Every structure is written in C-alpha cells, then in structure tokens.
Amino acid sequence: xxxxxxxxxxxxxxxxxxxxxxxxxxxxxxxxxxxxxxxxxxxxxxxxxxxxxxxxxxxxxxxxxxxxxxxxxxxxxxxxxxxxxxxxxxxxxxxxxxxxxxxxxxxxxxxxxxxxxxxxxxxxxxxxxxxxxxxxxxxxxxxxxxxxxxxxxxxxxxxxxxxxxxxxxxxxxxxxxxxxxxxxxxxxxxxxxxxxxxxxxxxxxxxxxxxxxxxxxxxxxxxxxxxxxxxxxxxxxxxxxxxxxxxxxxxxxxxxxxxxxxxxxxxxx
Length: 269
Fold this sequence. Notes:
alpha/beta; Metallo-beta-lactamase, Chain A; six-stranded mixed beta sheet
C-alpha cells in the first residue's frame, strides 16, 4: 500500500475466512482513521489518530472507536441516526452476550460531525473527500484521496461481489461505481476482500447491472425471487473455480442480493 496509508485487516469473530479492513491516512495536519473495526484493540496500529471517519454504521466498521477518546468522529447523518437509535445498543448487547471475549470492550460512538452529501478534510498535503454513495446501506460513504489515486470504498465495494443490504439505491449505486472507475482512481480498498484497482469498481457495477437485468426479465415472466436466483447462479457471473473458494457467506448473499433487487423493482412499480 501507499507510504502514507496503513491498512489493518482482521477476521470477523467466528469466521476466519471473512476479513474486514480499516485504514489510516497520515497527512502533516491530521492522521485520519477510516473505520474502527470491532473493538478498541483492533486499533492499536493506529495510535496518534486525530480524526475518525465512518464509511457506514455496520458493527464491524465502527465498534472500536473507544480506542480514540476525545478524537472527533465524522460520518453521514444517517449513520448518526442509526447509531443513536435504541436498536444499535440492543444489538451490541446481543452480540456481547453471545461472545463476551470478542465484544466486551466494543462501544457505540456516534459521529459528532455529520454531512449529507460531501465533506472535504485538509489532512495536510493530502485531501480527504468524503462522498455519500448509498447502496450497500443508506449511510454508505466512500473516501477519496485524489493525490494518491486512492478510494477507500467501505462496503460500497467488495471482492468478489457487493452486499445489497437495503433496497432503494441500486441503480444509483452501480452508476456511481462506474463513474468512480473512470475518475482516475488507481488504488481501491474494499471493506471486505483484497485491494485492487478501478477494475474492481467496474466489476461490482457490472454485477449489480446483471442482477437488475435478470430481475426485470424474471418479473416480466411472473417469476419469484427464488426462481430468478435459480436461473442466475453465482458461478455464472464469476470466473471458473472462484465460487468454490469463496466463504459460504457470498453464495448465500448472492441469493439475498437478488431478493433485494426484486424488492426494489417491485416497490417502484
């Protein structure tokens, strides 16, 4: 990775083959942590951070923030709404009860500074542009460092396929990924999976487009989401041999992704 960027990757509890990644960007004015993973101990390599940014409010991206007491936290305004809702604390309590060792030190710290569309940070020699990119979730944000050709994509991008958690933004999501693939970005760091280049953005957009096409065709024929999924297995969309090497999560998520696309198209009718 680039000299001014440090990445930390850890596996999710109970899932050794499903990693999540956070980053720190070191400018001369600010050392900006992007996502804080699961618990404060995950953030040990990021000592000296002066700002924290959330790409979104999912638990595996923001429960380690207590490692940075007093450090300002920035996120989309919907992320703050979600992290201050009672359901967020209830979910942490449930996860802690199931696995005390993994979550005993985890805390929910909502962003104190929020924005609706875009926010620019002068980190000193590096510009950090936060762009709202809904799709994975309504509060999803990507972090662009133009001087480095770097895009920290959170879960707006994954390898090998994205996770469609919420219907409502699917076409916009694919279009934005295509736009970013043509924007001069040379380094793309997804929230899950190994880094790549602009081809990773284009591949995620193409996957979403293919699901939309299949869902539109299937609905026109009166098919259910399960019937559409049966006609479009994940293996048909990835290179030979890739599916067999994937965590079970992605095989199941592909089916759920199709259900989300179907739900969005039906809601738009």
